[in-house]
Structure formats: C-alpha cells, structure tokens
C-alpha cells in the first residue's frame, strides 16, 4: 500500500540512479515495480543475449539510455571467433520501431554496422551520446551519418574500436549548426584526419571538455586545437615521434599553459622526449595520465614527467618505467587510486632487465595508501611481496596480476603463489574483481572461496589441480557474477555440482579445461534457463550428429549464461547451443 | 550445495567431496601428488608441468618453450596491434637487420624492405662484402662458393637464406650472417 500518490513516489525514485538500487526497488511490491519501470531512464544490460529488445521496451517504455555488452571478456584475447555474435542491429531496429526516445547508447564488445549507425542517426531525434568500446564492424561512413543526422549530439566516444577508416570526410559531416559537442574521441581511427574540419568543429564547440584525436593529428594542429579550446579537461594527443623545432615547441607550450582546466592526458602513441616536456606546465593539475601506448619512450623520460604529477589519481603506463620508476610514482603520487602497468615486450623477445617485478608492486603499495585498483603485468612475483602488498593495501577493489609466464612459481622459493593470493583475498575484504596467475594449486581457490566474500569477477588461467579448485570458488563466493577460466584442469564434476549457482551468475567461460560434451549436454538438460554454448575450433556444425562416444570428447570452449529468452537465433556455425 | 547424486563416467563424486582439511592433507594428498596436466590435447602449445606441492627444496619445472600461446598474455588485440606497429615503424620505415661476415672486422646493416626478392638481396650483400655466393639451386644450395648466407629467425635458429618464400623470410629474419669456410660446408652443399 502506498501512502503517497504515485507521482510523489516517482519523484523520490528520480533520486535513485544506481541500477542495483533500482532493481531492488522494483522487487518491493507490484505498485513500486510499475512505478519504477515506467520511470526508469537508464538501463544496463550486461549480456545482450540475456534478454531481447522487445521485452526491454515492454518493461521500460521511458528508456532514454541503454548500455549493452556483447561478447564475453575473453574475446579481447582472440579466444572468441570473430563471427560469434553480439549484433546491435536488432536492438536499434526494435527501439526505432517502438519510437523510444533514445538519447544515449553505450556498447561494449558488440558488432556495429554502418547500417546500424545510419538507422540510429535517423530514428532518435533527441540522440545525444554514443559511446563505443571495443566494438567492430563499422567504418567512418557510419560515423559520417551520426555526425550529419544527430542534431543534438553531445558525445561521440570511440574507445579501442576496430574501425575501417575510409579516409572520408566524416568530420566535415558535422553541420555548421552543431555546437553542442562536449566530448569527441576518435583516437582509434587509423587514417588521415581532415584537420581543417576538425579545427572548425572544435572552434565552434565552446562546451567541448573532452577531445581525443588520432595519430594523424600533427603537433602544429594540436597546438591550434588547444589554443581554441583552453577549456579542455580531457585531452588525447596524437603521435609525435620527431622532436619539434624551437618555434613549434614554444607555441605548443604556450597553448598548453592556457589549458588550466586540463586534468586528464592520454594518447602519445609515440612521443619524442622533448615534446613530452612541453606538457610540464600542466602536470601538477593532472589527475589521470595514460602513457601506456608510448612504446618507444624510455623509463627516465617517463619518470621525469611523473615527478611533476603530484595529484595523479589514475595512471596507465608501460612496464618500461621499471621498478625504479614505480618507486618514483610511489613517492610522488600520494593520491593514486588506480594503476595499470602494461607489458611492452609482448613476445618475451628481449631479456628485459628494466621491466617491473615484485619490487615495484610493493613500493606502490607502500607509498600509495588510496590505491584500490591495480592491473599489473610482470615477469616474476613472490609470496612475500604479495603478503606485504596485502598488508599495505587492504582496500583493493580490483586486483589483477598477470605474470607473463604461465605456471611460474615464486622465484625465490619455487613454491606456488597460493599463499600470496590468499593473503590478498583475506586482507581485502571489499575485493570485487580478481585475476590470478603464476603457479597455483587448488589451495588458492580454497582461500578465495573462504575469504573473497564480495568477489564478483574472477579470471583464472593455467591454475589449479582438480575439480575441487573450481568447487571451492562456486561454493564460497556468494556474489560471483562472472567466472572465466582457461587452461585449467576443471571438469564435469565441478561444472555440474550446483547447477542452481548459475542462476545467480551472469556467465561462465571455460576454455581448454576438462569439461566434456556429455557434461555440457547434461548441464543444458538440467538448466533450460541457461544458454550453454559450445564454441568449436573448426566450423563444425555436426556436433549433435556425432555418436555417443564423442560425449567423452573435451569441449574446447564453453560459454554459458542465464537468459530469459532462450537460445539465440543468430549463432554462427562454429557455435552450438545445447 | 547439493551433490549431484550420480556417480558415472561424467561425474566423479569423490572429486566433489569437500573436506575441512586443506588440500594435500590425509588422503586428499594422494590426489594432489598425481601429476596433473591441464593441457593434454596436442592442440595446445603448453607442455605438462609437475605441480608437487609436497616438495621440499627447489623443484625445477620444465620451463615452457617460448611458443606463442593463443590469447596470452591477456592483452587486448587493439593494444597488441598498436605496440606492434610501433616496433615495426620505429625501425625507420624499414626492416633493418645486422649483417656479419666471418672474418670481416665490422658489421653492416641493411634494410630488407628495399629488396623484392632473394637475387637482389644477394647481389647487394656481395657488393657490400666483396664476395660471391655462387648459384643457388634447390638441390645443391649455394654451389661454387665458400660463402653461405645464413640468417637467425624469430625462434633463434640459424637458417639458410633462400629456403622459404621471400615474404616469410623478411618477416622472420632477425639478423644475417655470411658463413665462410668449413663451417659453411654443412649447410651450403647438397644437404
């Protein structure tokens, strides 16, 4: 029973924006469910195949902002076939047909076509914001339609997408009347950019706060851009491998000095050291710095730069910074919250003494008390270091450690890293995301199951000894949502032990493990509310037609997820849905 | 958690039994001591490693070959591609490799991308070092010369120049070495 009229309740709900909270509200009563769903503006769908667009629209007719995620996370590492799925087109078609007043669309790991973008641009007159992360399937022609037709476009943010650059004039397609841009990111485009069109666009966008250009924007153009947009807060620069001459350098520095609002800096797919120094004047204001694409720049230049960045909260860097560099970060960046250290040598070709080790990690943990999120690629690790890190930083929410060599033990004791990771999960009571690596037995999973009470996402590779490992996790981690496992000896016993567990999870990925076709088939029979997808290496469609003996055959890749709409119809031949 | 009440070829009930002890204690230990390989299929590039957690002293697990494992390290393709192009382009728009010749006092560097095929490359090397390699033929390799051009490939192996298609050579060649004399005989003649 409601004590207030519906409009009042709705008004109160307006203050509640978190998806989780909104979901909770809708469970209170039928009345609240109705009020909530009719007033909900923003919807987040973590797996685009868990629901379909028609049901989405039916439940949330006032939808304004939609976030969709498609391919599973391991698609980032080429473990999912290109044609697996995650097409946004049917969503746009349905939303257009239902005349939903869509204003914002955020997609991650989805397949987007030019046709989809064209339809999008023509169907939603109030469309304001398009954010595409790790998507593919479209070209600059699609961008041209968005630029041309979305009259109220404020945000066009393209992060790490594979875009076919037709080197057309998509930037020219923004009409002269378009002055509302607040955010423009085309850093992932590989081709030439129409500099004149870009400069005109930036000049007529007084509200532009975030600008990230691609590699093809040279230094003098950057200088001009910064000069006419001193209000920028977030800047992504291009590629500057050649040292600028004196005059260009002075002009650049002058333009940079004017950008007093600048807080975030990225890009730098190549940067000559002198060029980097032009940014010194604004270093002290930076809260976010991404130099993780600057493969050629040497550690000492990076260190010199970072020494000025005392307010840094977020740092993405390459391991060329070295342990010494991380020690500098630890003593300089006391506000640091998030650190990502990426590998610069991906094929282990060089005997790299300057890469980072456990020493750098310990230094950071000791020096940066606010650190809560880390992604760290390194060549070696020790239990002692991890135990120290856990003691120093009990506030980790995200802890992702990737030791480059699979199965590598503690390099001082040759033991597994069970104790080190055990210390992390025991100390970090708020840990939500964890990636483990190195030599690990079932014991580490016992620890994880026992202590990682808030853990929502766990990534396992080359770890564990028996099914018990996976069972410890499934039984212990009550809040687990996404579990992804590769090259680990977990099989049917673990997979089938508690089928209902998968009701509480978004998805499970297992590749190169011990699960067999028979085990997967049984799971699919016992859980009709799951889509159990088998992805084969060869595009073999006749999995079902093989005789019984093949039930013992191991499944190469298994991806299962809960869904309310049954098996999807758009699976390619290499995917079998049991 | 309920156990699946079946014990058959798919489900090994004993494996699901969770006891209060840590793995490696009492009769849980026997299972642990078995050599476990997570990669039995020969599709995977990764060899078996012995995980003996009861061991005292240092165990030395076989170090894995530096073969590329699919999707490892877990770095996004976008990022991998960007770093790659960097490494290639940083060679100054070319593929410069060092060339050494046995007996020569110093090395040279050449840009492989300026050549279209082997004969051009050989001619250039001959000019550079003032020698002759003779004729290359499938059966007898480099006939009529005491010099044999070899190269080090991505895996660190020394190969005879000319065996693989040109493009494959350019993409895998890390350095060149012109061998001379008796060392050359093994490679050069009718292998």
Automatic annotation (TrEMBL), chain A:
A Gene Ontology biological process term: SCF-dependent proteasomal ubiquitin-dependent protein catabolic process
Domain F-box: 4-45
InterPro entries: COI1_F-box, F-box_dom, Leu-rich_rpt, LRR_dom_sf, Transp_inhibit
Pathway: Protein modification; protein ubiquitination
Domain of life assignment: Eukaryota
Annotated compartments: Nucleus
One cellular component term from this protein's GO annotations in UniProt: SCF ubiquitin ligase complex
GO MF: auxin binding
UniProt KW keywords: Auxin signaling pathway, Developmental protein, Nucleus, Ubl conjugation pathway
Pfam family, one: F-box_5
Calcium as UniProt keyword: no
Family matches, as SMART domains: FBOX
Protein name: F-box domain-containing protein
Naturally occurring in which organism (per UniProt): Brassica campestris
UniProtKB/TrEMBL annotation, chain B:
Record-annotated PB1 domain positions: 94-181
Major subcellular site: nucleus
Subcellular location: Nucleus
Example of a GO biological process term: auxin-activated signaling pathway
Disordered as annotated region, ranges: 21-69
SUPFAM superfamilies named among the record's database cross-references: CAD & PB1 domains
Superkingdom field: Eukaryota
Pfam families: AUX_IAA
Alphabetized InterPro entries for the sequence: AUX/IAA_dom (IPR033389), AUX_IAA (IPR003311), PB1-like (IPR053793)
Keywords: Auxin signaling pathway, Nucleus, Repressor, Transcription, Transcription regulation
GO CC, alphabetical: nucleus
Basic and acidic residues composition bias: residue spans: 45-57
Family: Belongs to the Aux/IAA family.
Subunit composition and interactions: Homodimers and heterodimers.
Function: Aux/IAA proteins are short-lived transcriptional factors that function as repressors of early auxin response genes at low auxin concentrations.
Protein name, per record: Auxin-responsive protein
Organism this protein belongs to: Brassica campestris (Field mustard)
């Amino acid at each position: 029973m409601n004590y207030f009229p519906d409009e009042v309740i709705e008004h109160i709900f307006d203050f509640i924006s978190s998806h989780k909270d909104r979901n909770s509200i809708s469970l209170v009563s039928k009345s609240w469910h109705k009020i909530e769903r009719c007033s909900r503006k923003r919807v987040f769908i973590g797996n685009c195949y868990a629901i379909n667009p028609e049901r989405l629209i039916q439940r949330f007719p006032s939808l304004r902002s939609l976030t969709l995620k498609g391919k599973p996370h391991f698609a980032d590492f080429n473990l999912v076939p290109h044609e697996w799925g995650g097409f946004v087109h049917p969503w746009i078609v349905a939303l257009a047909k239902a005349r939903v007043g869509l204003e914002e669309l955020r997609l991650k790991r989805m397949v987007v076509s030019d046709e989809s973008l064209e339809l999008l641009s023509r169907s939603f007159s109030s469309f304001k914001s398009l954010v595409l992360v790790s998507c593919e399937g479209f070209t600059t022609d699609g961008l041209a339609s968005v630029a041309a037709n979305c009259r109220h476009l404020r945000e066009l943010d393209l992060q790490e997408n594979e875009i076919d650059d037709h080197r057309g004039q998509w930037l020219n397609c923004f009409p002269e009347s378009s002055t509302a841009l607040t955010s423009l990111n085309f850093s992932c485009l590989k081709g030439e950019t129409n500099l004149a069109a870009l400069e005109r666009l930036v000049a007529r966008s007084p509200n532009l706060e975030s600008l990230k250009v691609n590699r093809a924007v040279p230094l003098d153009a950057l200088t001009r851009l910064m000069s006419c947009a001193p209000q920028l807060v977030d800047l992504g620069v291009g590629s500057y491998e050649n040292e600028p001459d004196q005059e260009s350098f002075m002009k650049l520095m002058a333009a940079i000095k004017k950008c007093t609002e600048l807080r975030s800096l990225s890009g730098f797919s190549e940067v000559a050291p002198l060029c980097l120094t032009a940014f010194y004047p604004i270093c002290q204001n930076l809260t976010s710095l991404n130099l993780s694409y600057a493969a050629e720049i040497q550690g000492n230049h990076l260190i010199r730069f970072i020494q000025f960045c005392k307010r840094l909260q977020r740092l993405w860097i390459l391991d060329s910074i070295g342990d010494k560099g991380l020690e500098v970060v630890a003593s300089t960046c006391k506000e640091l919250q998030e650190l990502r250290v990426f590998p610069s040598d991906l094929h282990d070709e060089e005997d790299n003494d300057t890469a980072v080790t456990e020493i750098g990690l310990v230094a950071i943990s000791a020096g940066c008390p606010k650190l809560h999120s880390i992604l760290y690629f390194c060549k070696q690790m020790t239990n002692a270091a991890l135990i120290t890190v856990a003691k120093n930083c009990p506030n980790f929410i995200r802890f992702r450690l990737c030791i480059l060599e699979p199965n590598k033990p503690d390099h001082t004791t040759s033991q597994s890293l069970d104790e080190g990771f055990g210390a992390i999960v025991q100390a970090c009571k708020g840990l939500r995301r964890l990636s483990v690596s190195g030599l690990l037995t079932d014991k580490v999973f016992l620890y994880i199951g026992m202590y990682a009470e808030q853990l929502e996402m766990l990534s396992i590779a080359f770890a564990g000894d028996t099914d018990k490992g996976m069972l410890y996790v499934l039984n212990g981690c009550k809040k687990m949502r996404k579990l992804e496992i590769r090259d680990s000896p977990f099989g049917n016993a673990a997979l089938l032990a508690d089928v209902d567990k998968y009701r509480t999870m978004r998805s499970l990925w297992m590749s190169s493990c011990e699960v067999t076709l028979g085990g997967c088939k049984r799971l699919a029979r016992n859980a009709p509310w799951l889509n159990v997808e088998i992805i084969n290496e060869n595009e073999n469609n006749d999995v079902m037609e093989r005789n019984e003996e093949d039930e013992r055959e191991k499944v190469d890749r298994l991806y299962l997820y809960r869904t309310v709409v049954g098996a999807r119809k758009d699976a390619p031949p290499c995917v079998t849905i049991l | 958690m309920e156990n699946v009440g079946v014990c058959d070829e798919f489900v090994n009930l004993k494996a699901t039994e969770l006891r209060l002890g840590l793995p490696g204690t009492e009769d849980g230990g026997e299972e642990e001591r078995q050599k476990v390989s997570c990669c039995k299929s020969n599709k995977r590039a990764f060899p078996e490693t012995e995980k003996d957690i009861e061991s005292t002293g240092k165990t030395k697990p076989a170090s894995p070959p530096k073969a590329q494992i699919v999707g490892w390290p877990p770095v996004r393709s976008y990022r991998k591609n960007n770093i790659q192009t960097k490494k290639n382009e940083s060679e100054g728009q070319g593929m410069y490799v060092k060339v050494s010749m046995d007996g020569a006092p110093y090395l040279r560097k050449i840009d492989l991308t300026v050549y279209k095929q082997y004969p051009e490359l050989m001619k250039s090397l001959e000019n550079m070092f003032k020698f002759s390699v003779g004729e290359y033929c499938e059966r007898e390799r480099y006939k009529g010369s005491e010099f044999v051009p070899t190269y080090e490939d991505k895996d660190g192996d020394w190969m005879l120049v000319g065996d693989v298609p040109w493009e494959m050579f350019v993409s895998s060649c890390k350095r060149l070495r012109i061998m001379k004399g008796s060392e050359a005989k093994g490679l050069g003649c009718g292998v």
